[in-house]
Amino acid sequence: MRIAQIAPLFEAVPPKLYGGTERVVHSLTEELVAMGHEVTLFASGDSITSAKLAAMRPEALRLDPTVKDWVAHYMRMVETVGRRAGEFDVIHSHIDYFPLGLLDRQGTPFLTTLHGRLDLPEFGEIYGTYAHTPFVSISDHQRLPIPQLDWARTILHGMPADRLKPLDVKRDYLAFLGRVSPEKGLDRAIRIAAAAGMKLKVAAKVDNADKAYFESEIKPLLSIGEVEFIGEINDDQKPEFLSGAHALLFPIRWPEPFGLVMIESMACGTPVIAFRHGSVPEVMEDGLTGFIVETEEEAVAALKRLPELDRTRVRQRFDERFTSRRMAQDYVDLYQELIDAKKSPRLRAVAGN
């Protein structure tokens, strides 16, 4: 199967540090190649892939301070994909609504995986315009704001089974991994750890847009309890960071579409204490891979129940549910459905005399 993958341009594929969508695209692309498919990855030139790389610019947008209009780079990539559409059996987009108008007007089967939140008012209008085109959700909950789209399937994320593994290290803290922003709930994590009398290690990125929030809301909390702020970490650092934690705290306060850090933690055998928002009940299995809670008080109580959980079983559930091979096979099945549907003759109504 000849497959085009259209990746975001803000980060390399895979991202060097933080970056969820690009990490998923990399996992999917590499697995498709391993399965014998011919894959072309449209991405930034600093991406690393076993597929054919169609470099749309030299480096990721986030690394280039000279970029003034990022939309121009996306539109150029969309046009490039459109001109090459005939080379592929299926086109898979991961860049939201940008290519939908063009892809809808050409003959190659295509689909769009939506990776972000869909509860903003403009999204209903723009995606509704292309409601007849096939979309993939990354959790069932993600669909709720726009249920009228042509939802072809929900495909949960996956990652390579050997990317992150449990390490036999001393466990003496709680972990927070990801990004510092109001919706990610680092303030909650700090208070939970302090109330439980446990150390908290924070491996998180602070975007420019969130620097004011970090300075005004988070920095004053860092003196509560015992908090070690590490900053961004890469994949090579994650096994030790997550394996050394009693649990990962995931105290979100927004409709999380998926939450890749939950399965990264599970891959290391580390249970997750997660707030019941968005995709959490679809990813987490309460009492098996961690605990799902509603309040900070419930989170503190859940920490006392961690000895009930089997970390070997946590890793086993990752292997059973969240590998990139499972994810890739789900997508291949859908690709074939779209290709077969495109080939099928369609009956046309004939007006009566």
UniProtKB/TrEMBL annotation:
Q: Which residues form a coiled coil?
A: none
Q: Where is the Glycosyl transferase family domain?
A: 167-315
The segment(s) forming the Glycosyltransferase subfamily 4-like N-terminal domain are: 18-124
User: Is the keyword Transport in the record?
Assistant: no
**Pfam families, sorted:** Glyco_transf_4 (PF13439), Glycos_transf_1 (PF00534)
Transferase found in the keyword field: yes
Q: Which GO terms describe its molecular function?
A: glycosyltransferase activity
CDD domains named among the record's database cross-references: GT4_AviGT4-like
Q: What UniProt keywords apply to this chain's record, in alphabetical order? A: Transferase
Q: What is this protein called?
A: Glycosyltransferase
